């Protein structure tokens, strides 16, 4: 099969080519696994963390990618839940305990990090971590649901908001634009304020129904009950805390924060940013419950992710665009 592999960690520049297009051995299913013929794989910010070494894969080379949509090609002896030809998706959770807190367990394994992922024509995965994909989604548009959407759903649950609570989103890329649709569906009376660096993303948010959009350092029209931060930076954290109501909660949905602007944290003022029971909560990984629940809700809405597709061989371009260009939605690799 063909695959894009990561052999060495590096800082991604506007013309670097971190992944190599190669011939790779086809995967064979273990007794509890399925092998999937990949149709599409979304490009997630976590891949930048892996390439640039903030989240180091245990062994190299590795095939990245954890927003996978494909068709079951073969199944292990013990697999009962999927048949050959079924369409399934795979997210960031490759395997864990199956318990409700499996995202936090030390045995948690990540797709495209601890095991080869979906930047390839085929991949294998334990059958319980492959999910049926609702029919109404096309392959490529379903891909961002597997991480950006599912983990956005987990982040929204962790805000502990109720319908009517004003909610903020900091950063407006692959995950946040799906969370906005989720909020409209689950909390229809909640106004949504969006903080984004560039004017294009702010306009995109307003087009999708945000009630207000402003730059990262702006003050929202009303104090917010919760804010979900999906940026890789620190400045938005300090600003978000300033925009919270007393008792409000900042949910940081990012596996790693970049060190570049860490000195912004020195601006943290206890009275202004934390006093009055303001809280900070991180989001770690994902459970199979989150993904299954989210796919059901996504098909009820139905969520329609905004995507831009690239052939597998152009994964490097898709990654550079993610880092250097303001994105409108999600970049997705499609296999020929
Ligand atoms: Zn992801």
UniProtKB/TrEMBL annotation:
This protein's record includes keyword Protein biosynthesis: no
Report the superkingdom from the record.
Answer: Bacteria
Gene Ontology terms for molecular function:
alcohol dehydrogenase (NAD+) activity; zinc ion binding
UniProt keyword terms in alphabetical order = Metal-binding, Oxidoreductase, Zinc
- Give the PROSITE patterns listed for this entry: ADH_ZINC
One Pfam match: ADH_N
Supply the InterPro entries for this chain. Answer: ADH-like_N (IPR013154), ADH_Zn_CS (IPR002328), GroES-like_sf (IPR011032), NAD(P)-bd_dom_sf (IPR036291)
Cofactor section: Zn(2+)
Q: What is its EC number?
A: 1.1.1.1
Keyword Amino-acid biosynthesis applies = no
The kind of enzyme this is, by top-level EC class, is: oxidoreductase
Q: Where is the Alcohol dehydrogenase-like N-terminal domain?
A: 31-135
One GO cellular component term: cytoplasm
Quote the SUPFAM superfamilies the UniProt record gives.
GroES-like (SSF50129), NAD(P)-binding Rossmann-fold domains (SSF51735)
Q: Which PANTHER family match?
A: ALCOHOL DEHYDROGENASE 1-RELATED, VACUOLAR PROTEIN SORTING-ASSOCIATED PROTEIN 11
Q: Which family does it belong to?
A: Belongs to the zinc-containing alcohol dehydrogenase family.
Q: What is this protein called?
A: Alcohol dehydrogenase
């Amino acid at each position: 099969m063909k695959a894009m592999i990561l052999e060495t960690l590096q800082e991604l520049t506007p013309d670097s080519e971190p992944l190599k297009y190669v011939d790779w051995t086809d995967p064979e299913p273990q007794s509890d696994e399925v092998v999937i013929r990949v149709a599409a794989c979304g490009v997630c910010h976590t891949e930048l963390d892996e390439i640039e070494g903030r989240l180091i894969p245990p062994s190299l080379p590795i095939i990245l990618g954890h927003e996978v949509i494909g068709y079951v090609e073969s199944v292990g002896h013990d697999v009962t839940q999927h048949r050959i030809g079924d369409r399934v998706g795979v997210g960031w959770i490759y395997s864990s305990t199956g318990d409700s807190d499996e995202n936090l367990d030390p045995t948690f394994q990540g797709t495209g990090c601890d095991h080869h992922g979906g930047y390839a024509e085929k991949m294998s995965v334990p059958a319980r971590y492959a999910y049926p994909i609702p029919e109404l989604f096309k392959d490529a548009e379903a891909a961002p649901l597997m991480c950006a959407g599912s983990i956005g759903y987990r982040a929204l649950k962790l805000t502990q908001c109720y319908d009517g609570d004003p909610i903020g989103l900091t950063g407006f890329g692959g995950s946040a634009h799906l969370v906005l649709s989720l909020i409209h569906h689950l909390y229809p009376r909640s106004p949504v304020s969006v903080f984004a660096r560039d004017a294009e993303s702010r306009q995109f948010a307003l087009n999708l129904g945000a009630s207000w959009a402003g730059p990262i350092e702006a003050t929202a029209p009303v104090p917010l009950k919760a804010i979900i931060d999906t940026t890789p930076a620190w400045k938005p954290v300090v600003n978000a805390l300033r925009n919270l109501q007393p008792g409000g909660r900042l949910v940081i949905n990012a596996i790693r924060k970049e060190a570049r602007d860490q000195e912004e944290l020195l601006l943290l003022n206890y009275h202004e940013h934390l006093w009055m029971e303001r809280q900070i909560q991180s989001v770690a990984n994902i459970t199979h419950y989150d993904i299954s629940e989210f796919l059901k809700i996504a098909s009820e809405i139905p969520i329609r992710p905004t995507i831009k597709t690239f052939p597998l061989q152009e994964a490097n371009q898709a990654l550079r665009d993610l880092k250097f260009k303001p994105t409108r939605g999600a970049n997705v690799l499609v296999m020929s």
